[in-house]
Automatic annotation (TrEMBL):
<keyword id="KW-1133">Transmembrane helix</keyword>
<dbReference type="GO" id="GO:0006487">
    <property type="term" value="P:protein N-linked glycosylation"/>
</dbReference>
<comment type="function">
    <text>Subunit of the oligosaccharyl transferase (OST) complex that catalyzes the initial transfer of a defined glycan (Glc(3)Man(9)GlcNAc(2) in eukaryotes) from the lipid carrier dolichol-pyrophosphate to an asparagine residue within an Asn-X-Ser/Thr consensus motif in nascent polypeptide chains, the first step in protein N-glycosylation. N-glycosylation occurs cotranslationally and the complex associates with the Sec61 complex at the channel-forming translocon complex that mediates protein translocation across the endoplasmic reticulum (ER). All subunits are required for a maximal enzyme activity.</text>
</comment>
<feature type="transmembrane region" description="Helical">
    <location>
        <begin position="27"/>
        <end position="46"/>
    </location>
</feature>
<feature type="transmembrane region" description="Helical">
    <location>
        <begin position="53"/>
        <end position="78"/>
    </location>
</feature>
<dbReference type="Pfam" id="PF05251">
    <property type="entry name" value="Ost5"/>
</dbReference>
<protein>
    <recommendedName>
        <fullName>Dolichyl-diphosphooligosaccharide-protein glycosyltransferase subunit OST5</fullName>
    </recommendedName>
</protein>
<keyword id="KW-0812">Transmembrane</keyword>
<comment type="similarity">
    <text>Belongs to the OST5 family.</text>
</comment>
<keyword id="KW-0472">Membrane</keyword>
<dbReference type="InterPro" id="IPR007915">
    <property type="entry name" value="TMEM258/Ost5"/>
</dbReference>
<dbReference type="GO" id="GO:0008250">
    <property type="term" value="C:oligosaccharyltransferase complex"/>
</dbReference>
<comment type="subunit">
    <text>Component of the oligosaccharyltransferase (OST) complex.</text>
</comment>
Amino acid sequence: MSSPLLDVWEAAASAPFSPAIGKNTQFTVGFVLLAISLVLTTVFGMNRSLANLPVLGVPASLAFGFGAVYMICAVGVYV
């Protein structure tokens, strides 16, 4: 009798996972995202208004979040 979990396991063995961002480029992607977030945060801080929040604040926080995770993974600390 075959279990569904075993079938999924065997099907996954023939198609290994390959990430969209390779291990060799994680540091570069993380550094660029952190630099972008620093620029956007600086511009947002200089002229802070409610209209600039979706234009500058949200992309800055997303870039910082993803950049921090990529940088953490690039230096060898896995989350």
